[in-house]
Structure formats: C-alpha cells, structure tokens
Amino acid sequence: SEEPLLAGRRVLITAGGTIERLDPVRYITNDSSGKMGFAIAAAARRMGAEVVLVAGNTSAGSFPEGVQHVQALSAQEMYDAVLRRLADTDIVIMAAAVSDYRPKSVAPQKMKKTGENLILELERTPDILQTVGQRKGKTFVVGFAAETEHLEEYAMDKLQRKNCDLLVANDVSQEGAGFGTDTNIAQIYNKDGLLENLPMMTKPEMACRLLRIIASTLEAAGDR
Ligand code: PMT
C-alpha cells in the first residue's frame, strides 16, 4: 500500500493521443497508448488524491478505479476539458500526446477519391500546456516532452516557454521508452535544471517516482 502523500490534492492528468478528423471515417493520430497517463492516474489515486483523467484515444485497457474519467478526443476537446477544470485543480500532469496540427477543414461526408493527388492543409491546434502555464495561478504544472534528440536543451526550453513547474523528458528514440511500451526512461527537470534521472522502469513505477517528487516539491515549497 502507498503512503497518502497526495491526500486531499485534486490532480488532473491527460493521457493518450488526440484524434484530428479529416472526414467521418478518417483521422490523424499518433502512437500514444495512454499507459503512462493511466499509470499516473492510478498511482495518484492510491496516494490519496482526487483524480480526474482526461483521456484521448487510448489502448491501455480499462480505466483505473476510483478515478473520474473524461473523454476528450481532439486537441480542442482536450483544451476545453482541461481549462474548464483548471481553477479547481491543484496539480496538472500532461502526459497526453496532443497533435500540433489538425486538418484545416473537416469534410462532412466521406471524401471521394479522384485521379489527382490530394494535398491536405493543416492548421495549428491550441497549445494546452502553454495556456495552462499562462493561467495556472497556484496550480502546480507538470509537462511532458517527447524528444528524439537534444533532450536537455529542448526540455529546458519547453519548461521555460510553457511556464511548467516540472518537465518530464522522455527520449522516445530509446528502446524501452516512450510511445506504446510498458517501460519508460525519463529525466525530470525543474527551473534549475536536471532534478532526477529515471532509468528504465515500468510505467507504474515511474508514475510513483514522479508523484513522490511532486509531493516533496510541494512540501518543500511549504504548501502543506
Ligand atoms: O501513452 P504512452 O503510450 O504510454 O506513451 C507515453 C508518452 C510517450 C506519450 C508520454 O510519456 C509523453 O511523452 N507525452 C507527451 C508527448 C508529447 O506530445 O510531447 P510534446 O513534446 O509534443 O509536447 C510537450 C507537452 O505539451 C506535452 O505535455 C503535451 O501534452 C503538451 N501539448 C502539446 C501540444 C499541444 N497542442 N498542446 C499541449 O498541451
């Protein structure tokens, strides 16, 4: 059993990949399974938190018990679901893989093929983490970064630009890390730089480590 390190804390976690529709039967998505976010939600619940899990497209199995589940398939839906709850949340952890682009127009009917090539025009989606960082007030904000190179440089840049309290950087080019796997490898940064190096471990183990770091950071800040 887990120590109630997060008793009374309201924690919102995003998980999975977003789906950006082209037409009623086609969409753009990514390889996120939701395993990392589900593991964080389950562990936060075991540590006594009140948990809201905002989930996109997932293949991680059933939702953790005792957790409030909100479905938000597109980046826009996830943005709305997170921002609506921000003021009532103590800790936000953004483990979802949100699409940076979506089709500029969504066809109301199934698109028909022609003899020509097809060019899709994509537009930017709203940046949820950035908006949360701007409006966070007292909420503790944890971002994720999926990188394939220059991990530390990109992680610190993201942490600062998006005004996160912690950033979890996973090098998704490494075997045993990132999208779809049962394990992950990550580095946790705060504004002063590298805080903790997490070698390969299962996502549930990593979820516990991350939440303990969050709890002790909050405690050190005198917020308890
Ligand atoms: O789901 P799994 O299969 O278990 O895989 C886990 C994971 C690899 C998806 C997870 O560990 C992870 O790294 N999640 C973040 C993936 C990602 O989209 O990283 P990014 O570097 O593109 O985005 C940085 C941060 O901004 C993320 O917190 C993301 O949620 C957020 N973001 C990105 C784009 C956008 N429009 N809005 C956002 O809020």
Automatic annotation (TrEMBL):
It catalyses: N-[(R)-4-phosphopantothenoyl]-L-cysteine + H(+) = (R)-4'-phosphopantetheine + CO2; (R)-4'-phosphopantothenate + L-cysteine + CTP = N-[(R)-4-phosphopantothenoyl]-L-cysteine + CMP + diphosphate + H(+). Residues 11-224 are annotated as: Phosphopantothenate--cysteine ligase. Binds 1 FMN per subunit. Pathway: Cofactor biosynthesis; coenzyme A biosynthesis; CoA from (R)-pantothenate: step 2/5; Cofactor biosynthesis; coenzyme A biosynthesis; CoA from (R)-pantothenate: step 3/5. It comes from the Bacteria. One of its GO terms (biological process) is coenzyme A biosynthetic process. Keywords: Decarboxylase, Flavoprotein, FMN, Ligase, Lyase, Magnesium, Metal-binding, Multifunctional enzyme. CTP binds at residues 100, 110, 126-129, 144, 158, 162. Its cofactor is Mg(2+); FMN. GO terms for cellular component: phosphopantothenoylcysteine decarboxylase complex. Its EC number is 4.1.1.36, 6.3.2.5. Residues 6-216 form the DNA/pantothenate metabolism flavoprotein C-terminal domain. In the N-terminal section; belongs to the HFCD (homo-oligomeric flavin containing Cys decarboxylase) superfamily. In the C-terminal section; belongs to the PPC synthetase family. Catalyzes two sequential steps in the biosynthesis of coenzyme A. In the first step cysteine is conjugated to 4'-phosphopantothenate to form 4-phosphopantothenoylcysteine. In the second step the latter compound is decarboxylated to form 4'-phosphopantotheine. This is Coenzyme A biosynthesis bifunctional protein CoaBC. It comes from Paenibacillus swuensis. The lineage of its organism: Bacteria, Bacillati, Bacillota, Bacilli, Bacillales.
